[in-house]
Automatic annotation (TrEMBL):
<comment type="function">
    <text>Catalyzes the synthesis of 5,6-dihydrouridine (D), a modified base found in the D-loop of most tRNAs, via the reduction of the C5-C6 double bond in target uridines.</text>
</comment>
<feature type="binding site">
    <location>
        <position position="70"/>
    </location>
    <ligand>
        <name>FMN</name>
    </ligand>
</feature>
<feature type="binding site">
    <location>
        <position position="169"/>
    </location>
    <ligand>
        <name>FMN</name>
    </ligand>
</feature>
<keyword id="KW-0547">Nucleotide-binding</keyword>
<feature type="binding site">
    <location>
        <begin position="224"/>
        <end position="225"/>
    </location>
    <ligand>
        <name>FMN</name>
    </ligand>
</feature>
<dbReference type="GO" id="GO:0050660">
    <property type="term" value="F:flavin adenine dinucleotide binding"/>
</dbReference>
<keyword id="KW-0694">RNA-binding</keyword>
<keyword id="KW-0521">NADP</keyword>
<dbReference type="Pfam" id="PF01207">
    <property type="entry name" value="Dus"/>
</dbReference>
<keyword id="KW-0285">Flavoprotein</keyword>
<feature type="domain" description="DUS-like FMN-binding">
    <location>
        <begin position="14"/>
        <end position="302"/>
    </location>
</feature>
<dbReference type="GO" id="GO:0017150">
    <property type="term" value="F:tRNA dihydrouridine synthase activity"/>
</dbReference>
<comment type="similarity">
    <text>Belongs to the dus family.</text>
</comment>
<dbReference type="InterPro" id="IPR024036">
    <property type="entry name" value="tRNA-dHydroUridine_Synthase_C"/>
</dbReference>
<dbReference type="InterPro" id="IPR001269">
    <property type="entry name" value="DUS_fam"/>
</dbReference>
<keyword id="KW-0560">Oxidoreductase</keyword>
<keyword id="KW-0819">tRNA processing</keyword>
């Protein structure tokens, strides 16, 4: 089996983000430079009960190669059943277990970052993924802990399950998305394990990505919220360029818009409004632009607006 992931140079990975990293967005960042794309977080429950929406969420673009699906689950049986369903889906190269999501409904369910408070359970569930998956790769996405930071213990628990790499968001569950990211803790985890570690958390731009790689000596960076409205960060990292022209940005925005329409149909224009809010940030006249696009549902009118504004 050829290795689709090359850790000889830092990997640039798109983080799974609910409501954002759908197929159109992933296809855009893939085209412009991401090494690996990962689906939005999929509940094992929803997968096992064959929800149509969930099956649409794991579809991938033909350009996404390698491609991972991220699952969350709180029981060995459920996770095993979810993995067995994914085994039958073509084109998935790896399964990632979410051990970091801080959302109350996920946490209170016993999955996501809840597993960081019970490393024995984390190991049972992650080992289940590893044992039953027929995909090439297994990975885990973690945080630094629930309330206390225990990066070394978490790293070792994950490594013991035989995964190929771990992605770590440099906050605890209690830190949600507000606390400062602890790059020292990421560095500690990296030093404690022999598997590759991907750094995640507040990596907003090209400079920050470079700095984090240099400081933590991580094997890659995972960018999530920093890519919303700025997916060209992948292009910059891929090509090592600090400045990117407005022309290039416009090309990427239009590419994203067309991908949305292709995947979601005409309703994609309405769905694209929130993305245009992010894309227009920092541009003169952004507020007026947002007010106008909020009222547009026509596919061609929306495209003209984008053409003219950017």
């Amino acid at each position: 089996m050829n290795n689709k992931l090359d850790f000889s140079k830092p990997l640039v990975v798109l983080a799974p983000l609910a409501g954002y990293t759908d197929l159109p967005f992933r296809s855009v960042v893939k085209k412009f430079g991401a090494d690996l794309t990962i689906s939005e977080m999929i509940s094992s429950n929803a997968l096992v009960y064959k929800s149509a929406r969930t099956l649409k969420m794991i579809e991938k673009s033909p350009t996404e190669d390698p491609y991972f699906v991220q699952i969350a689950g709180n029981s060995v049986d459920l996770v095993k059943a979810a993995v067995e369903i994914l085994n039958d889906v073509e084109g998935i190269d790896g399964i990632d277990l979410n051990c970091g999501c801080p959302a109350p409904k996920v946490f209170n369910h016993g999955s996501g970052s809840n597993l960081l408070g019970d490393l024995k359970k984390l190991e049972e569930i992650l080992s289940t993924v590893k044992k039953y998956s027929k995909k090439q790769y297994t990975s885990a996405k973690v945080r630094l802990g629930v309330n206390e930071k225990i990066p070394v213990e978490i790293g070792k628990a994950v490594e013991a399950c035989g995964v190929d790499f771990v992605s770590v968001h440099g906050r605890t569950r209690a830190g949600k998305y507000k606390a400062p990211v602890d790059y020292d803790a990421i560095k500690m985890m990296k030093e404690a394990v022999s598997i590759p570690v991907i750094a995640n958390g507040d990596i907003k731009d090209y400079e920050k990505a470079k700095e984090v790689l240099e400081y933590t000596k991580a094997n890659g960076v995972m960018i999530g919220r920093g890519a919303i409205g700025k997916p060209w960060v992948f292009y910059q990292l891929k090509h090592g360029i600090e400045n990117i022209s407005n022309e290039k940005k416009k090309e990427i925005i239009l590419e994203h818009y067309d991908a949305m329409l292709k995947f979601h149909g005409p309703h994609g224009a309405i769905m694209f409004r929130k993305l245009l809010h992010a894309y227009s940030k920092g541009y003169t006249g952004a507020n007026e632009f947002r007010d106008i696009v909020n009222k547009i549902s026509d596919v061609d009118v929306m495209r003209d607006m984008i053409e003219n504004f950017f």
